[in-house]
Amino acid sequence: MRLVTRGFEFLGQLMKALNFFSGAIILFLTLLISADVAMRYFFNHPIENATEITEHALLFIAFLSAAWILRKGGHVEVDIIYNQLGPRSRRFLDCLNPLLGAMVCLAFTWFSVQATWLAYERGTVFATTWRLPRAPILAVIPVGSLLLFLEYLRQIFQNLSGEKRNESVGRED
Predict the structure, then answer these.
(1) Does residue 136 sit within a domain?
(2) Which of 53, 55, 59, 142 could be a cystine partner for 113, CB 3.0 to 4.6 Å?
(3) What string of DSSP letters covers the chain?
(4) What is the pTM of this model?
């Protein structure tokens, strides 16, 4: 039990670091897009491949930060019915929702690993001026999906053990 708890603590630190990295990517994109707009406006010469860089970076931002956002309770929740239920029904849903989320994320992880591996085997590239290989960029999808799966497992474990959720968006560890 203690080993599981320590594993989840390590996972939380990993997610926090990846979320920080996602923030750094956002900062980089802000500077890149600003410079691209300025270059286009003042010199009529935009930064080459800025759009392609932005497209790929958005994929990294979404998948590297999703698990941390889930841990902090930042995903959208519709609780109209949930608030009307009794404690027993709420506890059931508190276990069912992460179970369903874990199943979806596990399936998504499996299929994205297959797609990434296929892209690697075939050596496919993006049809752009850079012709970047697909596999290294697509690899972020199974990584992020696996982290989401593990976070859902942590929530199931937490709900079954009776621990209260004490994390919220904006709260630092």
Answers:
(1) yes
(2) 142
(3) -HHHHHHHHHHHHHHHHHHHHHHHHHHHHHHHHHHHHHHHHHHS-PPTTHHHHHHHHHHHHHHHHHHHHHHTT-S----TTGGGS-HHHHHHHHHHHHHHHHHHHHHHHHHHHHHHHHHHHHT-B-SSSS--BHHHHHTHHHHHHHHHHHHHHHHHHHHHHTPPP---TT---
(4) 0.84
